[in-house]
Amino acid sequence: MTAIRLTAPMKGWACSLDEVPDAVFAGRMLGDGIAIDPVGTSLHAPCDGEVLTLHSGGHAITLRGTGGVELLMHIGIDTVQLGGAPFTARVAPGERVTQGQVLIEFDLDAIVCAAPSVVTPILVTNGDAFRIVAHGGGRMVEPGDVVLTLEPVAAREAVAETGGELISAEVRVPMAHGIHARPAARIGDVAKGFSATSWLAKGGAQATTRGAVGLLGLGIRHGDVIEVRASGADAAHAVAALVALIEGGMGEATALDAPPPAPIAPAPTRLRDLPAGQLGGTLAAAGYAIGTARWLRVAEIEVPVDGQGIEVEAQRLERALGAVRARLAAAPGTGAGAAIRAAHIAFLDDDDLRAEADRGIVGGQDAGHAWRGATRAQAMVLKGLGDPRLAERADDLLDLERQVLAELTGAETAALAFAPGTILLADDLLPSQVMALDPAAVVGLAIERGGPTSHVAILAGTMGLPALVAIGAALQDVADGTTLILDADGGVVHVDPPEAVLMEARAIAGRRADAAAAALAAAGEACRTADGVRIEAFANLGSVEDARIAMANGAEGSGLLRTEFLFLERDTAPDATEQAALYGEIAGVLDGRPLIVRLLDVGGDKPAPYLPIAPEENPALGLRGIRVALAMPEILEAQLRGILSVRPVGQCRIMIPMVASVAEIVAVRAVVDRLRGEMGIAERVEVGIMVETPAAAVTAGTLAGHADFLSIGTNDLTQYALAMDRGNPAVAAGIDGLHPAVLQLIAHTAQGAARHGRWVGVCGGLASDGLAVPLLIGLGITELSAAPRFVPELKALVRTLSIDRCHALATRALAAASAGEVRAMVRDFLKEQAA
């Protein structure tokens, strides 16, 4: 018989079964084959054949195809527990199908939200009759692409252990979902350990325990009474073992009355009901805009599979990489855009990425095809690490994929020119696409996917574009030309609003514009409350350009200089001289105003390639912040030398991140004092701490005895207090720093610091949240370090507030039941203030 070629049953990334996050499939207990991580929404027949079984849950199907090959296709992992909700079968058992025919349609978004994985194994279950001779993994595939090539093996006469008495016993199936793929594999694995032939029987039909397809074909469900049969030398032992295995439940759900299927999780940001005509999303960049919907849809660049020879393709790839690298390096600007371009250059120079592309070229592939395979393989690794922020870095790889392919093929890069007043819609955006937008024409972004900490979100904030991400598939229903109100602050897009709503939105936008102009005009004035209390209005910085923007917007200093931008996306750590030059340049821009320099905060969500930090199961709770610096004293000492070198001495204050104990403060201060002595610095340099852990907030009264000031990082403090990852779109909408629990930790911090006469600031996201400002002042915060462009608005708001009224508001908020209740309370308060 000739070779049998099986085509991809779905669109997605084809990979080895070793990458399936389930021991049954990865261990090939049901058979060998391939797996696909889908990006499509339908399962197709990989060959002509007959449907043998279709699981009642709709997630698994078996076929007998050409030459008698038996196949099992299992959509996702643990999807049996979804009760069939995301699956729609288009065929039935016994039906003949043709290659490419749709077998099952499924809701990919629903499965992603509700199942551990969507990776789909495609298995040859009668592998004793066939040998896999070609495996098409490590690439993107579509239905019709060949992914497995099989050859029949010489038939071997089975030695059936049928001698002796037939032993049987009945057993009631306790598994909530009956015998599906995983239990079938376990049964077959146990049966192999006995010198006996065994079967399961139900309703007059039976199937050998060594054939998963046959077992699935019995349709055994929860509560069914089945018969276990065996013959051969070990028949009695085999029956006893199989009965015990089934009665024990095999680790599956076994409740006598099985609970209803787990509900399919809603789209990630849909944590509240919205009226018709409104779509919810996750805030990526604050703001408010009215405009016209325009979709950005970019076709994938086509590249051939086969190359023109190793030397030709290697040279083509080298030239393309060099051209993209040169273009990125020559692009003007600093700040977020420059940092992202530097990250892209680092990817281009990544030896492993290039080596993977070279392997494809050596295998005969076109340079573009090899580059696409390499970048997507690495992107899949990042997405599979379980860290949402690292998954978002996969977008940068896909961006580079497109830039290099455009260079290789001569494909025109989309001009990204839009009419003025455009609110840009996209299923996702690449950083280079955002940097190519004209903010004078595009007034906001609404994105179906994406995350709030992606480079796209950072760029949108830098460019002043309000942006919502993770809106979900409902965004696809919005047509080009539709009028939209993008309320990023409120997390809502109003689609085709009625004229009355639109008129009110225009009035709101007008008032906001007038207020912004007035605030900017008065930004140079000192920040004081209406009753004369001084509140320092500082800015968070990440570059020299940020410092210039902060000064132009009236910042009175910097409450947070993020120093990570000096350390990331490079092969070695910066030395003290390089750091001193950069800190000094920023201090010079601030013209003597305070500059609070946060010590290096890497690890967790911000890994540096030259720091030997092993992979961690939960990076957010692992080696990060000051823990890294204390574990690597040479890094800490070089940074402190750089800070202490800035003149005048004392303009730069030192802030320790992720503090959880007094010992950490004492250890850092000891190094500071030693270096002061070595450098001949007589002046005392302030050393403060960031309060980002509940431990620091609860023990603030103790920590304040050793720190010169305390600054609250509300982003991390919120995620740790609420046990929600602020970088995870699945829970992003539930994370709110105005949750009463977070407010109580802030209050506790301020009270503890006051006992030692220490000032407390906020440098986290709440300092840039207008609804949070009255509460923070009422809780005793005297320094607010916000996004540079928010400083004028911050000052203008503070000038309308009085300490007594803010304190009364904060006292009521501490007793509220939810963040939503707190926000409503503050809105009412501000309306009363304005009246």
Q: What distinguishing features does this structure have?
A:
835 residues, alpha/beta, eight-stranded antiparallel sheet, eight-stranded mixed sheet, 27 helices, 34 strands, 36% helix, elongated
Report what the structure shows.
With 835 residues, the chain is an alpha/beta fold. Strands 9-5-6-7-11-3-2-13 form an eight-stranded antiparallel sheet. Helix 6 packs antiparallel against helix 7 (335-348), helix 9 (367-383) packs antiparallel against helix 10 and helix 16 runs parallel beside helix 18 (633-644). The longest helix is centred in the middle third of the chain and has 23 residues, at 499-521. The N and C termini lie far apart (87 Å).
What's the N-to-C terminus distance?
Answer: 87 Å
Q: Give the low-confidence spans.
A: 155-161, 254-272, 385-389
Strand order of the largest sheet: 9-5-6-7-11-3-2-13
Radius of gyration based on Cα positions = 31 Å
Number of helices: 27
Q: Which descriptor suits the 3D outline?
A: elongated
The SS-based structural class is alpha/beta
Q: What value does the average pLDDT take?
A: 83
Major sheet, described briefly?
8 strands, antiparallel
Helix content percent band: 25-40%
Instruction: Compute the number of strand runs.
Output: 34
Report the β-strand fraction as a percent range: 15-25%
Oligomer class:
single chain
